[in-house]
Every structure is written in structure tokens, then in C-alpha cells.
Design brief:
Helix content is 68%, strand content 2%. It binds protoporphyrin IX containing FE (2 copies).
């Protein structure tokens, strides 16, 4: 079978998968409308440790997407873009299911005035996920016509990032972005609802994985020098891009650390899949202060810095028309 035939066949299969995902978006709320999980106990015959399986699926999906996006062959990069789009639509589907649980309208008692923003924040983030999904489908369509072989090495080069940095950047980015709406939702689940602990296992496990990835990244940066910033940037843009990168490294460490300390001081364990990590800190009231950082201050700082990072990268690509700038990190 020729390369073009394989591509046409794959597109047909992917179109079916897309159609099935969209129909599940429409059908799932109706199917779940029978019982409200807020009041219902754990469904009978529920698969044990399904939270660890879902967590594993999320981590594998993030890594596979990151690997495919930076694959040498354009067909594989197209699959990476389609998988990234599917991840975005997955977030939208998850939100539709979450709406049906009733938790967004009847959340855990508010602890701080900022908590009143949570439903709006979730709506905003999910709309952004939907728009990104559609944009990624458009980019996938364009990439499917490309014949460019991406020739990169594992190590970073002077003008662009190598395979290892690219895969770690995109795996971390997908997981980090996923953690924000799911973290907000999990903090709204009232005590006693059966899937509260399931969400906690997922959130804490992925948080620890992000921390592990950033430690690996810092070690890798010492071994393989990071490329200098793109030469086409103006001096002010260089300063802003550099500051945003440093702040993002700080946030990738500070957010999981404050989450862990807040949890431990509150007397709860952390998790790594099935493994329960006991608290190494004595229980105490200071968890409120660490919670202020994890849940409010750092969360809003993430919106500002990450927003500037993504808007900066898009401006460089779409407005300044430096089409090679994005290619330093992907495709
Ligand atoms: C979908 C959203 C994202 C896009 C489009 C994006 C895009 C990029 C691009 C194009 C670069 C290369 C900049 C250059 O040419 O020097 C980069 C670097 C970087 N990104 Fe992202 N990024 C995203 C999400 C994230 C997230 C969520 C994080 C972390 C929380 C992050 C952290 C970083 C860091 C730390 C660097 C600098 C890498 C280094 O030099 O070591 N990015 N990003
Ligand atoms: C990069 C990693 C992480 C990110 C981006 C993240 C993000 C978030 C966000 C956005 C919230 C919702 C805050 C709110 O609006 O109330 C949250 C809640 C929470 N996070 Fe994290 N988190 C991370 C890592 C961790 C880790 C490692 C732990 C613990 C081991 C943790 C424990 C918690 C807990 C327990 C809550 C819920 C608090 C409540 O029920 O009110 N997080 N996180």
C-alpha cells in the first residue's frame, strides 16, 4: 500500500474516532442523568483502583502525544496533533460529565472569597480547550500534506531544542495544563462523595510526576546546554521570554511542593499510583498558609506567566511571522 493510501485510510479511521468522541459528548450526560453521583455511593462492581488506571492512561497519552509531535515522519506528527486535539476534546467531555454530577452548582463549602470564581474559571478553561482542539485539527490537516523529515538529535543544538528537551517540555506542558481544571474541580467535591479520593490520587500522582520531570529537565539542561533565545526577538522580548522561562521553572517546582506540604500538614497522605506516601511533616495549622499559596496565589501566577508564555509564542509565530521560532520546540 502506498504512503498516500495509508494516509487516506488513516484519515477515515480517525474521522470515525472523532465522530464517536463527539457522539459520546452528546450521549454521556443523558446516560449519567439517571443518578446524581453526589448522593449515590460507590457504584456496585466498580473496578478497583480505576483511579490509578486513569492516571496511567493520562500520563501515557501525554508522553505519546509529546513523542509523536516530534517524530521524524510527518504522518506520525499528524497523529501527534490529532492525539493532542483528542486530549483537548477529552477535557471538554470530562467537563460535560462533571456538569452532570451537580458538583459545579453545589460545591464544597467555600473557604475563601476567590472560590466563587471556580465555576467561571472552569467554563473559561474548557472553552479554551475546545478552541485549541479545533485549531489542532486544522494544523493536523496542514501537517498531513507535509513531506518534511524532521532531522533532530537527542541533544540540544545551538539554534533549537533536541528530542529529549522537546518530549519532556510537551509531556510536562500537557500534564500541567490538565492539572489546572481537574485540580479546581477536585477541590469543589464535597466530603463523602465517592470519587473525591479518586480525584485526589490522580491529582497527587500527576503532581509528583511533574516534579520528577522538572528535576530530570534541570539535570538534562546541565548535560545538554539549552539553545540561546531566538535571534529574531527584540531585546525587550528576549528579557520577557527569559523571565517567563525562569518563572515557569520556579512554578513547576513550587506548585507541587506547596501541594505536598499543604496535604502533609493537613494530615493527609500523598499518592504515587497505588503507593500511599505517608506525611513526613507533623500535622499543624500552617497548612492554611501553604494552601493559600497552592490554591490561590500560585494558581493566579500560573495564569499570568503561562498566558504570557503561550501568547508570546503565538505572537512570534502568527503576527511577527517568524515561522521557524515554533519549530525550535515542535514539528
Ligand atoms: C500549549 C502551551 C505551550 C506552548 C505553545 C509552548 C511553547 C513553547 C515554545 C515555542 C518554547 C521555545 C521557546 C524558544 O524558542 O526559546 C517553549 C519553551 C519553554 N516552555 Fe513552553 N509552551 C507551552 C506550555 C508550557 C507549559 C505548560 C510550561 C510549564 C509549566 C512550559 C514551560 C516552558 C519552559 C520552561 C521553556 C523554556 C525551555 C528551556 O529553555 O529550558 N511551556 N515553550
Ligand atoms: C504541577 C502540579 C500541580 C498543579 C498544577 C496543581 C494545581 C492545583 C489546582 C489548580 C488546584 C485547585 C485549587 C483551588 O482552586 O481550590 C489544586 C488543588 C489541590 N492540590 Fe494541587 N496541583 C499540583 C500538585 C499537587 C500535589 C503534588 C499535591 C499533593 C501531594 C496537590 C494537592 C492538592 C490538593 C489536596 C488540592 C485540593 C485542596 C482542596 O480540596 O481544597 N497538588 N491543585
Amino acid at each position: 500500500m502506498s504512503y498516500q493510501n495509508i494516509l487516506t485510510q488513516s484519515r477515515k479511521h480517525l474521522a470515525w474516532i472523532g465522530l464517536m468522541c463527539l457522539s459520546s459528548l452528546v450521549l454521556t450526560p443523558k446516560a449519567l442523568a439517571v443518578t446524581s453521583p453526589i448522593s449515590a455511593g460507590t457504584p456496585e462492581g466498580w473496578w478497583p483502583h480505576f483511579e490509578s488506571l486513569i492516571t496511567l492512561a493520562v500520563v501515557v497519552a501525554a508522553f505519546t502525544t509529546a513523542w509523536l509531535l516530534n517524530h521524524a515522519r510527518p504522518r506520525m506528527r499528524t497523529y501527534g496533533l490529532l492525539l493532542a486535539a483528542l486530549c483537548c476534546f477529552g477535557i471538554v467531555a470530562w467537563f460535560v460529565v462533571s456538569l452532570n454530577t451537580g458538583i459545579i452548582d453545589h460545591p464544597k463549602k467555600f473557604q475563601a472569597p476567590m472560590d466563587a470564581w471556580k465555576p467561571t474559571l472552569l467554563w473559561g478553561q474548557v472553552i479554551i480547550a475546545g478552541i485549541c482542539g479545533l485549531a489542532l485539527l486544522g494544523i493536523a490537516q496542514r501537517e498531513s500534506n507535509s513531506e518534511e523529515i524532521l532531522d533532530i538529535t537527542n541533544e540540544n543544538e545551538t539554534g533549537r531544542y533536541g528530542r529529549v528537551s522537546r518530549i519532556v517540555h510537551w509531556t510536562t506542558a500537557i500534564l500541567f495544563i490538565f492539572m489546572i481544571p481537574t485540580g479546581i474541580f477536585s477541590s469543589m467535591i464535597p466530603e463523602g462523595v465517592w470519587f473525591r479520593s479518586e480525584y485526589n490520587v490522580m491529582h497527587k500522582t500527576i503532581g509528583l510526576i511533574i516534579f520528577g520531570l522538572v528535576v530530570f529537565r534541570l539535570i538534562w539542561n546541565r548535560k545538554s546546554k539549552r539553545p540561546a533565545l531566538d535571534a529574531s526577538l527584540k531585546p525587550l522580548e528576549k528579557k520577557m521570554a527569559h523571565s517567563a522561562h525562569i518563572l515557569l521553572y520556579v512554578l513547576m517546582i513550587a506548585v507541587p511542593v506547596t501541594g505536598y506540604v499543604m496535604t502533609s500538614l493537613h494530615g493527609y497522605p500523598a499518592f504515587f499510583f497505588l503507593i500511599e506516601i505517608p506525611s513526613f511533616l507533623e500535622k499543624g495549622g500552617a497548612y492554611v498558609v501553604w494552601g493559600m499559596f497552592h490554591k490561590y496565589l500560585l494558581q493566579y501566577l500560573v495564569y499570568i506567566v503561562l498566558g504570557a508564555h503561550v501568547i508570546g509564542a503565538l505572537k512570534h509565530h502568527l503576527i511577527d511571522k517568524h515561522k521557524d521560532a515554533f519549530k525550535r520546540m515542535v514539528l
